[in-house]
# Entry
Amino acid sequence: MSTLRTEEMTLNMGPQHPSTHGVLRFVVRADGEVMREAVPDVGYLHRSIEKIAEKVGYHGFMPYTDRVDYVCAMFTNQGWGMACEKLAGIEVPKRGEYCRVIAAEFNRIASHLLSVGTMAMDIGAMTPFTHAIREREMINDLIEELCGARLTFNYMRIGGVAFDLPPGWREKALAYLDHFDPILEEYNALISYNKIYIERLANVGVITLEEAINYNLVGPNLRACGFKWDARRDIPYSVYPDFEFEVPIGNGQWGQLGDAMDRYMVRIREMAESSKILRQALKQLPAGSVLAKVARNFKPPAGECQIRVESARGDMGWYVVSDGTAYPWRVHVRTGSFAAMGITQKLSRGLMIADLVTLIASLDVIAPEIDR
Amino acid sequence: MKTLVQNLIASGMFGKNAPYDLVAAIAVFVLSAVVFLGVAFPFAGIVSWVERRVWARIQSRVGPNRVGPNGFLQWLADGVKHVCKEDIVPTDADPHLFKMAPYLVVLAFVLPWAVMPFSSSLILADLNVGILYMTSVTALTVVGVLMAGWASNDKWSLIGGIRSAAQIVSYEIPAGLSIFPIVLMTGTLSMQGIIKAQGWAPQHWFLFANPFTFIAANILFISALAEGNRTPFDLPEAESELVAGFATEYSGMRYLFFFMAEWGNLFIIGAIITTLFLGGWQFPHVTNNVVAMNILQLITFNLKVLFLVFVSMWVRGTLPRVRIDQLMTLCWKYFVPIAFINMIGTAIWVAIWPEGNSWAGYIMVAAAIVVAVLFIQRVIYYAKRSKMEMYYNPTI
# Structure
């Protein structure tokens, strides 16, 4: 009898796969349930957003920035606004900065809620997802009152924000935060400390600090490896120095430092910190105008600038080159998801197929942010 | 049965000299058709609606509420939709196996109804190997699922099918071993015999007969969930990993058959546990009227089963999915040894107290009540704490 012929199986995961968060594609080489390697294939959601900026001008590009990362569009708005302000040397009014921070931090909570919710769903628990989405909807309601949109906000302008807080909004926001803090604990009781959930996440996709820095990971993915780096704290922008907040880092409590559980818990803790920042911001809110005077025909002086915003998916870099005309000469966005996709190939070696799903979810990659 | 057939022949419905066997065969087919089409399939359909509603409430959604009162006819609408859909057989699939697989799964779901002890008289066939028959025919599912996974000629389906085979075959063992303690105590495999050995009161149920049977009941329930491909063991159809697992390539009615079997299997899981551990149809003897007694027993049995069905929906709404290696570890490293210990423990218990120990029953029932009260307290605590808006109306 001849020996049994065995071969590796090549699986095509995506771009139409339920757990690839949009349109990612992985070419998986698997030996039964164990993966040899998963090679990411990006580019399915490329919309030339950076090139569009060169054709629509500075003000006109603001709505397009929403589409760079539609899950946390406030940060992309803020990044573009800050880059243009730095180019032209515009001072944003204090109240405008506060409005930006409030909107952005609410957006951070919404984005992290989506992230931890879909993560629970990828692990197979459906209930946490709907509970997270329920909370996110309430935040969307608040933001809708603020700027009229629920997903692609287009709230910020060069020199401030488009609208002041509507009357009574502050009280509503504070009431929501009072409701949100116990809900976060309930969410933890529901899923975060679930035995099966911890078993699924702990020791999966371990990233060492060295690897994380070499692969240029940012945001929660980097902090989960135990490195305390947050653009809000370390290269302060906007009015973040006014607030007291912790930068949560991974501690390897459930498994090894830098595993999927650490990344998950960092996001959960960041939501609590965002809630803290929001309370302070809503309390200290100064009076005044929210939008600086900016020429309609905005022509920043020739030059280049680079700014960094701590988005929900980490350090987002905006690089803008101006040649003194009404159109930017070059725009580049550096996003966290793209860097996170790079490391999946290395991490996937030797994982189970089910763990690849965990890995993608724990890195919190968003397809539009990868490709732009 | 015999009198029924003789009456049928005497009535002249089948002509003057109809052969006995032919009439008996027709009678059996008609009766089975009534049971399967009138009980099993509607039950599977209604469970799909109930599950979606229960699940929706757990997830703070509303669920299907458009078709009929409270969306009750949703299952019929879904059925009609699936019948109307095109039955696609992929070009590269093995057409015969591909078409046959759903029938095997449905077969595994309808066969156990033959020994379903609804009440003291309502049972199609009180086989003397009833529980053995039940576990054997439900294991047929694995053949259908594996066939579906293989014949689809799709890698995701194949992984789903293989996962299912590994899972169902493994969990047959702790499930079988957990049935042994009861067989040991009653000395019979017949469904009615096992139920008759229990009483209507909780302390006379085998669940609370001794600590070993209590553990056996839990292992059996978890193993049954695994055999029924239910969360947390729904790996064969893990949506986030395998698209739709072994059913990926199926469409229309064939696709529906798989899920009908899954929902219908919930009743069978509940019925096995109710029969073995929860006293089956046992009801206090309140009247000498046989018909009234049977109706009360039927209601008791169904309420117990439906409670277990609800629990499995609740579990599905709460727990995440385990990984395949964790699934196997749980089965072989924990359940199988514990089930063996249960068997030996029960044997020793029976040797010491051949008639059973009534104190054990009372103590365990008291402990169960304490646990239930603590659980309700915890629920109330969290409900008050997050100040969530509560909706007590079950029909929205």
Chain A has one domain: 62-360.
